[in-house]
Amino acid sequence: MIARLDAWCVAAVALGLAALATAPVADGGWMDVPALLGVVALTGIVCAASVRHGVTALWHSAVLVLLVVAGAAVSLDVVHAAGEQRVGPGFWLANLALWAVAWRGIDGVAAFRCMEPGRQKFFDLMVPAAFGLWLLYLWEIGVVGFGVPQVLLPAPGMIGERFVGSLDILWSDFRQTFLKAVLGGYLIGCGSGFLVSILVDRVPFLQRGLLPLGNMVSALPIVGVAPIMVMWFGFDWQSKAAVVVIMTFFPMLVNTVTGLAAAGAQERELMRSYAAGYWRTLFKLRLPSAMPFVFNALKINSTLALIGAIVAEFFGTPIVGMGFRISTEVGRMNVDMVWAEIAVAALAGSAFYGAVALAERTVTFWHPSYRERR
Amino acid sequence: MSLTFQTADGPVYALSDIDLQVKHGEFVSLIGPSGCGKTTLLRIVADLEQPTAGRVEVNGVSARQARLDRAYGYVFQAPALYPWRNIERNVTLPLEIIGMAREERRERARKYLELVNLGGFEKKFPWQLSGGMQQRASIARALCFEPELLLMDEPFGALDEIVRDHLNEQLLSLWAKTGKTVVFVTHSIPEAVFLSTRIVVMSPRPGRIIDVIDTNFPRDRTLDIRETPEFLKVAHRVREGLRAGHSYDD
Lengths: 374, 250
Prior knowledge:
By secondary structure, chain A is an all-alpha fold. Chain A is built from 15 helices and no strands.
């Protein structure tokens, strides 16, 4: 097993040697030769040692991952130090070598299996985390190494600096857009969608009358609705919440109506045989069996709400809010600030979605997709 | 009593001229090929279906009133347990609807789960149990509110023969212990003969009763009686009846 996978290490050593050969001679080339030599040598040693001494796969991978971290640190240092001079092909070859080592290392971590759920969880989480960090790293060296103009794409390091430097602005934008408009609109939209769906389910003519109407409203373009909502509800967050309500209402309505029909015939007849009335059947059978559908809507809406609120802020807002900040900072060419807002939106959106998904797991633990796999 | 379904292709005579009396404490099996209306008949008794003509009485009141009085426990072909409730809470579901106190509900659930040999599985969820255990839990659920009448619609139809034999024995001893009236739908001849005090043979198109056979095996019989001549005689008569009413060729 180890012998086969170590093709990656062999590739890394070969690429590293190629980089060493290229680096000093390339035109304008700049490479930290001793550091690169170190990485190549260590990779070779690790790969040879693991084959000869049968080191456990996890230790093998751990050493490789540490090697990659060290190599990446040197590489970042080099690329920033080179600055206007630019790095040469040797640098990119060396990074290809690093990539091969990283692949081999994370492959080992991903294959890790153990009986302790806590430890297993940690290693399971490490893989996507490492993947994300690696993408950020590639972004950083790519942008800096190729000298991409800041207006087109700022480096993640720069965005990070701006993020940390303007935490107060970001927080007030977050509070305005997310805590007020998104959450408020989401709760009202999902809540009313849920209640109306019960009504629609109970009153058949509403199903024929209201569902097409709801469908139409949800098909309205947000850029058309947002200015109207601003006229109706004013510049502050209420108009954005209204846009979010319009966006989230319908998915919730349709999903819950479908969910309420999801209970099986025998399960319903069972309630009937107990002479259980409408409300009892609703609470004891139909709502529980509708929960997977309700959570589906909650998840869809969690991302829709954020998009809706941010876009709605493009059509009139007080001088605070994530959408407002994005539209003004783009105009001022402060692209790093725009990216910082995007980062906030990404973090908030993921956390929001994650929280809903976690609640889903707790509530619909019985659903086949969440049953303990054993 | 009869029932006609109005379908797009014209009326379907699901049941015609059904006249049947079930006495208290009897174990009556309805047997017949698919489409003979045996399940429909059971559903009419349970007031899950209404006859188009005629009258059904359950314990001296209309089927609807009997349902509202919770006079029967119904066991479906599938266990129909709610997956978000554990076994105990599934069994106590009818008790919750009746409005029984929590402690008493628990006590009942424990008692009836013990009766169907599921003691100790209270906290398990239905999907963690085998098919046979799930069906036993559904029987406990039908028994726990102590109805006079147990209506069973091919409860073991989906189970393999070994589990089925085992559950047949358990059901029989359960019936002997509780003295309930049971109406049992099946399409298995040995199952019907083994369990019943009376076998109602039905035939399709239109669904009708073509023979009613009394059996008199001792109450504490075991599966071994299936080898005895009397058993085979009754089974033969059931088979003859089914063959006579067979109308698949036309």
